[in-house]
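Bit of a strange request maybe. I'm writing a small parser for C-alpha cell strings and I need a real example to test against, not something I typed by hand. Could someone generate the C-alpha cells for this chain?
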Amino acid sequence: MTVPTIPTQQRAAVRQGEGESATTAIKNIDVEKPGPGQILVKINWTGVCGSDKSLLHDDWKGFGVSMLPQSHGIAGHEGAGVVVAVGEGMQKRWKIGDRAGIKWIASTCGECEFCLNGNDEVHCEKQINSGFSAPGTFQEYCLVDGRYTSKIPDGVTDEEAGPIMCGGVTAYTACKRSAVKPGQWLVLPGAGGGLGHLAIQYARAMGMRVIAIDGGDEKRDLCQKLGAEAYIDFLKFKAPADLKDEIMKITKHGAHGVIVTAANKTVYEWGPMYLRPGGTMVVVGLPKDPAILAGAPPLVIALRRLNIVGNITGSLKDVEEALDFTARGIVHPILSKGKLEDLDSWVEKLKTVQGRLIGHFQDRPLNDHASGWSSLWDSNESGLWDRGRPSPALVDLIEEEENAIFQPTKSNGERKKALVPGCGRGYDVVMLALHGFDAYGLEISATGVAAARKYAATELRKPQKYNFGAGWTGPVKPGSVTFVEGDFFKNWERQVSTDGEVKFDLLYDYTFLCALHPQMRPQWVARMCQLVRPDGVLVCLEFPMYKDLTQPGPPWGLNGVHWDILARGGDGLKNIGKETEVDQVDELPGRFRRLLYRKPSRSYEAGRGQDMLSVYAPK
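Reply from user aminoacidic:
Good idea to test on real output. This should exercise your parser:
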C-alpha cells in the first residue's frame, strides 16, 4: 500500500471558555508522530455523545470531573478512521490502511487486577480517556494506544462504527447487565433517543421482548420499526404510576429488566417500580445533579429482591461483539451528519429542551422569531414543546366551573367561539370542540397546521380519555374545528371572517406568551383586547412560574407577569412585584380585571407543580 502523506498540521475543535457558555473554535494544531505502542489514526467520522456535551460544559464539575489539561481542550470519544502511521512494537497488530475505532477508554495499564481478570478493564485506575485525559476525536488525526484501539470489521462503515464506540457498546452492555433472558420483558424509558434506539435493536437481537417508553407518534413509529413489541406514550398518562399500571397490564407481574438511559429524576424514582420480583434496573443516564436518585425504598428492594446495577461503556471484547451485530446487518445507528466546524450546533442539540430552544433563538433578531418557530416545525422539532395531550387544568376548568362564562353556548343557543393561539398539534382546540365550543387554532407554520388537522381528523372520530375529566357529564354535540396558518400579530382573521373581524368568547394561552420575547408583552395584551368579546374571557395557564425572570428563554419566566401586564397595566419587564391588597381594587389601570386565580389540581409535569390558572375579563 502507498504510504499516505501526513500533514504537519491539522484542524481541531478546541474548547474555548468554561461552563454552559463554553464553545469550540477550529484551530490548526500539530500532527504528532506515533511513539512506541502507538498508532496515528486519520479520523473520517466521529460521533457526538451526551458525555461530550457534559465535559465541554462542565456538567459534572460537582463530581470533580472536568476536562484535564492533557486533553488540550479536544473532546470526542467515538472516532472511526484509518491507520496512517504505526509506532514501534505495533507492526504485528496494525498495518497502514487498517480501519480503527477510538473509544472513551483510550488506554489501560494491562497489569492491574481489573485488566488481568479478562472482562473488567473499564475499571483500570490508570486508564486514559479520550477527550478527558487525552486529546479526543474532534480533530482530523488522533494519536492512540495501539493495544487498546478497536479494529473495525468489514461490513461496518466508519459512519456507523463511530457511535458504536460509546453509545452502541453502552447500550449493548446494558442489555447484558440487565440479565434479561430471551422471551423476557425489558422496559426502555427514552427508547426513541440516541442510546434507546440502539438498545431496542440489541435487545431484540438478543431475544428480549421490548416495551418502549417515549413521547409522541413519531417516536412510536420509530420504536415499532426497530422492533419494540409494545409502545407506551408517556404524554398520554397523567402520572408515573399510570405507566407502572400499563406495564403491569402488558407483563402481568412487571418487567424482568429496566434500562434507564435518560438522565431523568422521575424515571430513576419509578424505574424499580416497573420491575417484577427479582428484576434488574440498569443505571446508564448520568444527571449532572449529584443527588441520590437510583433506587426504591430499601423495604421494597429487599422484599422484592430487586437488583440495581450500574453500567459504563464496555470492554475491548464488548466493543468487538457490538460491532459484530452491525457487521451482520442486525443493528444500525440512525445518523445525522455534519462538519467539524458545526460541532457547537450539534452539541446544542444535545442540551435539555429549554437549552435547545434558548440556543435556537439567542442570536435571532426579534423580527425573525416567527420564522424561527416555523423552522422548528419544518425540522421536525415540535417535540421540544409538544405536551402530547390537552391541558388537564383547562379540562377541569371547563367541566367544573359553574359560571356561565365557561359554558359552550350562549343563552340564545348560539355556540361560543374559542381561540387557542400557538395551538401546536391542536390538542386544546379539539378538546374545546368536544366540549361544545366552535374552536379555532392559530399556528405560525403550515407544517404545524397540517399536523393539527391530521390529529383533529382522528381525534374527533374517536376521542381519547384525556380529553375529559372527572367532572364530565357529556356527551354533547361537538362544535366545529378550524385551524388557521397565520401570525398572531397580523390580520389573520380575514381567513375566517368575510369582513376581517372576529371576536372570541374564550381565548386560551398556555405556552404562547412564554414563547414570546419579553419585549412583545405589551403587543400581546393589545392583541388580546382586539380579539376578545366584551363579555368574553382570557384563560391563562401561567407557565413557567419556577423560572427566574432574568433567565433567557424561550420559555421566558412569567412569575407575576400576567398580573402586571393585564391588571396593573405594566409592561411585564420592570418593577414586577408581588401583589398587595391595594392591587385588588378595580381602579388599577390595566385593561383586564381578574376573575379567578388558583393552583390547578391537575397540570403538566413540565410546570414542576407551580403552574397557576388565571381568568381575566376585559374592562
